[in-house]
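User: I'm new to structure prediction. If I give you an amino acid sequence, what do you actually give back? Let's try with this one:
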Amino acid sequence: MSSSRAKSPWWRDRSAVIRTTAVAASACLALVGCGALMPGQNSGGGPAVAAGPGPGVSGDSVKVVFVAVDLDAVQETTGFITASVGDQKAQVQALEDWVNDNGGVGGKELDAVFRLYDGRNDSPATEEQLCNQVTQDDKAFAVVLTGQFQSNARPCYAQRETLMLDATLVANDAEYYEELSPYLWTPSFPEYNSFIKAYVAASEKQGFFEGQKSVGVVAADSPVNRRAVEEVGVPLLEEAGLDVQVGWVDPTDMGTLYAGQEQAADTFRSKGVERVMFFGGSRLASIFASIAAGRQFTPKYSISSFDNPSFFINNPRLIPDGTMDGMIGIGFHPPQDVSDDLMPFPNPDNPAEVECIEVYEKAGITFESRESARVALPYCDAARMLKIGADNASGDLNAKTWSEAMEANGDGVLTSAGFGGALDRGRAGAGGYRAMRFDDECQCFVYDGDVEPFE
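Assistant: Good question. You get back a string of structure tokens that encode the predicted 3D arrangement of the chain. For your 455 residues, that looks like this:
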């Protein structure tokens, strides 16, 4: 027995299996459910908007579904340590009351429907079932999405003429927003190409590439992500004088997810790569770090809010020793980036965050920490956007008239879940980011410098 175990590859070792299997589900705790897909995995197109009132719009009310992932169930299953997000149904009720106490949406009463989604059973079939429930049973005008990663989800809502306010920490580029126009909007997070430009520039500014001839990029092999990496990310890294080694990861299922990252780690090590970046979301970074460590490959990493920094801090037993040494990157979502000790909560410099916290406090809802508000703040951003668009829409309220109103009135709309606002420049709300690094003294991530704008 001892001889056999000594010859077993690292991934057969029980401790390694436990660690890598656990981190494979890390996305489940970052506003999302557990899914097989990565940011930018969606593809499809939305049909034209029919004339007249949109679905869920009556003479006196507008029906909107808020989807919540059952994070308590996910945490119970995985054993991950994470701040509780609180009573999500009560948070939605508080937003409904606040909207209706302040004139409703376009003079109509907001009818907010709460639907809890079990992320542990995520699949194309279950997400199609949820889409059917929202669009056929609820007949909703809009849906506030959390945890919907499968490729069929967003096109399904667009085809049913249902407005989407995406509160999932998932990346979509400008071209994809156009493909699903006017249905897809992201109140709290950045447009993906703008993010990539900022991510590369900030990594270079922080000295991540100093003394290096090459860089490894771990990237989800999906249509949107491949387009963004090949057309934006790789050229920018090459302009910095780097030989770019891209490890494409097929996120179809756990088998292909592991195989792709194993191949990437082996390739990077054989090529002498000492710096690794991630384009694809929270599951890539945490899984890759464990795989690389098992292969005695210990590069320095650059990550972002898409990689869920709080998971690295909250679950040290799942992260190989030394993984965070010298780790840098950028953050655009404070609830999953930094601790309250390093950044006041709510932040007096962010009036949107202060406003949203006050909305919840009036309903008797408080949060143990900013991380605990990581779902509630994007919910609030979505409710605020719904009201702004509906209040300024002309004629019948539908996805087209709502979107036209948002495009005309997006200037100055801030996100409560991040920095600034960018709705005057597109359909993604995050306006800025800050340089981020792991600090050895506090054993936490900290921000450096001022807020920088996304393009």
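You can read the tokens as a compact description of the fold. Here is one thing that stands out. DSSP finds 15 helices and twelve strands in the chain.
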